Amino acid sequence: MRAGLRAARVVLGLLALGSALAAPAVPALAVAPVIAGGGYARIKDVASLKGVRDNQIVGYGLVTGLQGTGDTLRNAQFTEQSLQSMLDRMGINVRDARLRTRNVAAVMVTADLPPYVGAGSRIDVTVTSLGDATSLRGGTLLMTPLSGGDGNVYAAAQGPLAVSGFSAQGQAEQLTQGVPTAGRIPNGALIEREVPGAFRDLPELIFELKNPDFKTATMVADAINAYAMGRFHRRIASPRDQRSVVLQRPRDMILPRLVAEIGDLTIQPDVPARVVVDQRTGTVVIGRNVQISTVAVTHGNLTVRVTETPEVSQPAPFSNGQTTVVPRTEVAAREEQGKLAVLGGSDLQTLVRGLNQVGLKPTDIIAILQAVKTAGALQAELVVQ
Q1: What dotted CATH number matches 41-51+202-267?
Q2: Higher model confidence: residue 176 or residue 335?
Q3: In the 3-class helix/strand/coil scheme, how is the chain assigned residue by residue?
Q4: Within a 10 A sphere around the Cβ of 210, how many other Cβ atoms?
Q5: In sequence order, what are the residues at sequence separation of 6 or more whose Cβ sits closer than 8 angstroms to the Cβ of residue 93?
Q6: Model pLDDT for residues 14-30, shown as the tens digit of each residue
Q7: Fewer Cβ atoms within 10 Å of its own Cβ: the N or the C terminal residue of the chain?
Q8: Strand partners, 126
Q9: For 311-333, what is each residue's pLDDT tens digit?
């Protein structure tokens, strides 16, 4: 009995193997392995396809339903005119009436039109106040046409606002958190017109780097050619300059699939040697390729303290003297001891280790980096914001 069961299992296994070998092979999406760490990035993250971009649209509208936090119609005359025009289109004559409502606010509506979006799709919109409204919380945007730079209407926005900021005030104090005069409407705009052009109409495939660099452009082309040699047995990419990499269209490949597979290829982008310092916040950002030639640095703080302690001088009893204030000033100077340290290194870790050994504050590090740059020992670009 057991031998019969074993034979049946062997036969079923051979049948399953034969059906798997006979089944047609389905081409899988070629995805290069993503290497964690080491500064590796996908091509889709460092470059974008030329011609595939967003378009900005804008419109003017009214927000209603506010709880007395809208525009003052006497101060914002454009809000009153817009309200009168809207009511006139609805058959209500208010030209001779004095409107006193505070539940309406004039707003600007902005949105980004994604590439190759179809009619009937929905996108998010941002709504910002134009007049003296104090808050848009609880308001509803009335239907607002959104136009592009060519003057054509591409979308229409309408819906309740989502406002994260709020404002509350009393007789002697006011509390404001966030921006209550700006909000968003998720999926608040309906696409009415498609942008002319399609992906298949692109004259050529060009990847444009977000951070132009000759070495990065060369590495992108090399990664694409290595992929193409295994897939098409020929090279299809060549760097045009430090910003763009041109691709030749394979005849036996669907373009969206080609772009998808190329976008998942990984490279290690090269970054310029740059040090960015922000003196307002004390932020120091040091790039990976920053190097400092061997240099000796010492840094000490000089503190001068001036203390005023005036004294009152009283005259003797039964004398004709007057009470006077005698100034008393104390001046003290103290200079902290600075350690002489040797900075220099061929990589970022050595540089950071040397700065940490000195034990300085961010403002002191900024001063030292500026002095090292002046001395010619900082082999990088110093950007001061």
Answers
A1: 3.30.1360
A2: 176
A3: CHHHHHHHHHHHHHHHHHHHHHCCCCCCCCCCCCCCCCCCEEHHHHEEECCCCCEEEEEEEEEECCCCCCCCCCCCHHHHHHHHHHHHHCCCCCCCCCCCCCCCEEEEEEEEECCCCCCCCEEEEEEEECCCCCCCCCCEEEEEEEECCCCCEEEEEEEECECCCEEEECCCCEEEECCCCEEEEEEEEEECCCCCCCHHHCCCEEEEECCCCHHHHHHHHHHHHHHHHHHCCCCCEEECCCCEEEECCCCCCCHHHHHHHHHCCEECCCCCCEEEEECCCCEEEECCCCEEEEEEECCCCEEEEEEECCEEECCCCCCCCCCEEECCEEEEEEECCCCCEEEEECCHHHHHHHHHHHCCCHHHHHHHHHHHHHHCCEECEEEEC
A4: 11
A5: 87
A6: 333 343 333 333 333 33
A7: N
A8: 110, 184
A9: 777 777 777 777 777 777 676 65
The rounded distance, in Å, linking the Cα atoms of 206 and 49 is 6
CA distance 195 to 55: 9
What is the reported pLDDT for 226? Answer: 92
Type of residue at 251: R
Supply φ then ψ for residue 364, to 5 degrees: -70, -35
Please give the Cα distance from 92 to 78 (Å, whole number). Answer: 18
Which pair of structure tokens corresponds to residue 237? 């990419």
